Structures are given as C-alpha cells and as structure tokens.
C-alpha cells in the first residue's frame, strides 16, 4: 500500500490550504491516480487497522439498493450515522441540547462530545425500535444504492445499473460502455451527502476484470482506505459472477484532501512500515452478487498496525 502512503506524503508536501463546507479546513490537491494489482493481494490498508466488516456491510447495503441507515445500524455499522443524525437534530421533532455544528464542536470540546454521544445513542435506538422514526429520519435520500439499482428512467421505470453492467460484461466484454454512475444531477440536492465516489468504468482484457473509479472528493485519511477496499471488493464480486479473474483497481481522485485535524494522525501513519496484504475469501455457495451476506465475505492473513482514531467532518 505504498501508493496510498505516497499520496499522503504528496498532499503533505505539495497540497494547498483550502476552506471547505465543514469549516474544518483542508490541505488539498487536484488530480491524483493510484493503481492496485488485485492479484498481488487484497488492498486493505495495513499501516492502520481498517474494519473490513464495515466495508463489507456498506457495500452490501449499496448493492441491495438500500438508502436507510437502519439496515447499517442493525449490522452495527455506524459510518453513515452523522448525516442521518444531522437531519434529526435540525428538525422540529428534536427537543434535546443544541447540536449546531456538532461535528466540529465535539472534536474540540470533550464535554460536548459526551453530550453528542448521548444524543446519538438515543437516535440509533429510535431508528432500530421505531419504524416511523426510521422512515422519517433514517433515510438519506437517493444516495448510492438508489442510483446503482433504481436510477429513475423514462415512463416511471427504473434502471438497475449493476445488473445491466453484469449482463453487458458477460455478453460483450470488449465494450467501452461498462459504466455505473452515482452522480444524478436531478437528485443531488435531495441526497444527505452528494456522492463522493461518483463514476466507475470496468474493463476486460485477457480474461481479467479491472475497475477505474473517479472520486470527486476524497477524504484521504478516513474515507479513501475504505473506498479502496470497497471498490476492490466490488471488482472481485463482479469478476466472480462473470467468470473472470481480477485485474487492477485504478483509483482516480479529484479533490484529494487531508483535513487539518487529521494531520497528526497522518504523521503517525507515515512512520509505520506496511505489512503483507491479506487474501480475500468469497463463499463458493453464492451464485449471484446480490445473494452475498456478511458471513460470505472474509479476509485471511490480515495483521495491521493498530487503529488510529480521528474525528469525521460532517
């Protein structure tokens, strides 16, 4: 994973200071590409521990076309909680302590973070136990799962981009139209968070499937390691269903940035030596990409350095 560490070094050494919508501030650069040979190991970061279970449950959430955090919370995956939580605390239904700019305030005020955590527990409990609450505040709008599986088409029909892609790869592997997009201009404003990983193209040559992802906005410390693992996993799953080997995952970044409150964590990570990449194991009992569950996707030989905590910018 030297490619990822080189990206961190490049931003640290050559990035420019930029403001951002969260008010946190970033060091940023525009236009960067990494390439990962998937035959040489599964690209799960080893210089800090990545919760692979969260990567898997999020990807399966996308593939099911789901857009409600209830499914994730029930799977003990809380990586989307903040955006749904924000919807609740800004609503007239919320009667708790003031949560204005809760992300930034919690990062700088330990006492306030305790209050936020208490309210987040209330929120998650309500999402799981109250269907009406989950329907109103758990849905994130037409985010990835909706666009991947139910893109709005003509005459109120929908387009299943993932299923269409698999069929196209099987029928015409040499096509240059093996594309899935999550960026729907007509629905971006209705999304809790406009898609950061926006556009992917698949490529078949010599019996191998490769994927290139264009990511418009890349949170390099927290988000990018998850994105690498997620799209590498997606490539493996699609390749398996199409009876292909895996080729490369090509990761192209637009605005690649390190949040200013992540710089210390990045420095810690850059002092660590990468370890051997793990191996991905997929159940042989599942015929379709849509049939996989958490228990069907595992890794072997993962021995990373310890986790490095950092606040998420909302």
TrEMBL record:
The active site is at 196, 196 (nucleophile). Residues 2-314 form the Thymidylate synthase/dCMP hydroxymethylase domain. It holds the Pfam family Thymidylat_synt. Keywords: Cytoplasm, Methyltransferase, Nucleotide biosynthesis, Transferase. GO terms for biological process: dTMP biosynthetic process; dTTP biosynthetic process; methylation. Homodimer. HAMAP family: Thymidy_synth_bact. This is Thymidylate synthase. The lineage of its organism: Bacteria, Bacillati, Bacillota, Bacilli, Bacillales.
């Amino acid at each position: 994973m030297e490619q990822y560490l080189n990206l961190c070094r490049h931003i640290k050494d050559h990035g420019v200071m930029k403001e951002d919508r969260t008010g946190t501030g970033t060091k940023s650069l525009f236009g960067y590409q990494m390439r990962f040979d998937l035959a040489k190991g599964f690209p799960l970061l080893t210089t800090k521990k990545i919760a692979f279970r969260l990567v898997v449950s999020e990807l399966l959430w996308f593939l099911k076309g789901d857009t409600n955090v209830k499914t994730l919370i029930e799977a003990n995956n809380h990586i989307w909680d903040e955006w749904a939580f924000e919807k609740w605390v800004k609503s007239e239904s919320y009667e708790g302590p003031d949560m204005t700019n809760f992300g930034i305030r919690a990062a700088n005020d330990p006492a306030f973070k305790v209050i936020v955590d208490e309210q987040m527990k209330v929120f998650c409990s309500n999402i799981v136990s109250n269907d009406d609450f989950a329907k109103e505040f758990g849905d994130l709008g037409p985010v990835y799962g909706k666009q991947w599986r139910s893109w709005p088409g003509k005459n109120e029909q929908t387009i299943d981009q993932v299923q269409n892609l698999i069929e196209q790869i099987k029928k015409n592997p040499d096509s240059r139209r093996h594309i899935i997009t999550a960026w729907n201009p007509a629905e971006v404003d209705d999304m809790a968070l406009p898609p950061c990983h926006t556009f992917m193209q698949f490529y078949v040559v010599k019996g191998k499937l490769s994927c290139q992802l264009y990511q418009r906005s890349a949170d390099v410390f927290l988000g990018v390691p998850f994105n690498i693992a997620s799209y590498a996993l997606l490539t493996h799953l699609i390749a398996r269903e199409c009876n292909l080997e895996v080729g490369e995952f090509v990761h192209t970044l637009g605005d690649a940035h390190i949040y200013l409150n992540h710089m210390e964590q990045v420095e810690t990570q850059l002092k660590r030596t990468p370890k051997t990449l793990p191996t991905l194991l997929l159940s042989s009992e599942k015929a379709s990409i849509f049939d996989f569950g958490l228990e069907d996707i595992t890794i072997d030989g993962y021995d990373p350095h310890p986790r490095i905590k950092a606040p998420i910018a909302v």
